Amino acid sequence: MTTKTKTKSLLHVGAFAILVFFTGCKDETKTPEKKATNNTILKAPSGFSVEEIGKDLGAVRHLTVASNGDIYANRSVLNEGKAIIVLKDTDDDGTVDTQHEFADLPGTGILATDQYLYASSNAAIFRYAFNDDQELMDTDNPEKIVDGLIDMGADNAKPFTIDKDNTLYVTIGSWNDACRDNETQEGMIPCPILETAGGIWKFQANVPDQTFTDGERYATGLKNAVGITWNQSTNSLFATDHGRGGLHNFYPDLYSKKQDGELPAETLYEIKEGDNAGWPSTYFDPIKNKRVLAPEYGGDGDKEGEIDAIEPLMAFPAHLGPNDLLFYTGNMFPEKYRNGAFIAFHNQSPELKIGFLVAFVPFKDGKPSGKWEIFLDNFAGYDLKNPEGGTLLHRPCGLAQGPDGALYVCDDFGGSIFKITY
User: Fold this and answer.
1) Is the pLDDT of residue 2 over 90?
2) Rounded CA separation 332/143 (Å)
3) Which of the ends of the chain has fewer CB neighbours closer than 10 A, N or C?
4) What sign does the dihedral 97-141-169-411 (CA atoms) show?
């Protein structure tokens, strides 16, 4: 082979190698990962984006997202005479571009199913029919499902959930912190409030014109279970309950101011029909990790409760105010969040200097599988450990999951709705 021929062959081999190299590089090229963005005051875990999609919306309490992506929120206070607000993305660009309001009865609960939008006032449950595109057909004439639920003006929200068999579960909270007699300041035995409140009642979601007497008490002994949801995976009811207060104010000889800030626990329950969660004669002590007899009923701060009450799945710090509960069923978030529970805490712990946050509880096989953690923080907008001069901006209240797996959080103090994606 001549020198010229050898050189030509080497050039061919070199060209082929270069071609293979660049072809391989092209095959390995990856689409750049989407970067997380957060232009809000909220603090989220790494990789999560947070967007404020609604502002100055009023006292938006609970919210729901229909299968077409429309976002509905219920207000506890009318805004320009209307209670329910709907936000729409009409051109599918990921940005809310229209806003509509309707309904003239303020409330808390709201839930979109395939056929209806259900909403509650402080005394009743209504529903509005969807058409095939999940657009509401008539917002002026809702169908009344249940009426006559007791409303005494305090802890009177009527949050609800619906199971796969169209059973409607409604919380009726107690307006009296410990079923305490106003004259004697002692606990009433038996507590008459439990006849119409302090628990969860069940009705039929597809039967109109029911009254309170048409329902059945599903569970009792819950002071005010504002967070309530049906877990489709476990096919069971879960709820978060607000703990009572006033331990030091009414019993300064038994409880210090510090203890008043630490007791009792806010609680998470899985609830079966007939369960009793112990209110008002007992409360759950998160420090002693046991159920304690309430002082109005003969307790001394240590004596164990004597009734057969269910134990909480998890106990949280006192006074955090769990106002909504959502089990995450989407695929957008990382694996650790699948089937776990998000909880919106509406208040703060004065002792621990934490609060106004959304927490996450990991679940496995239908039970908590680890410690709870803070998922979204800084709704308050200032350092709770150094609150001097701070001005409260937001109080998380409602949670919802979008069709794509995004998480939505609404705030009934600042009137915002936040969208969290990954």
Assistant:
1) no
2) 35
3) N
4) positive
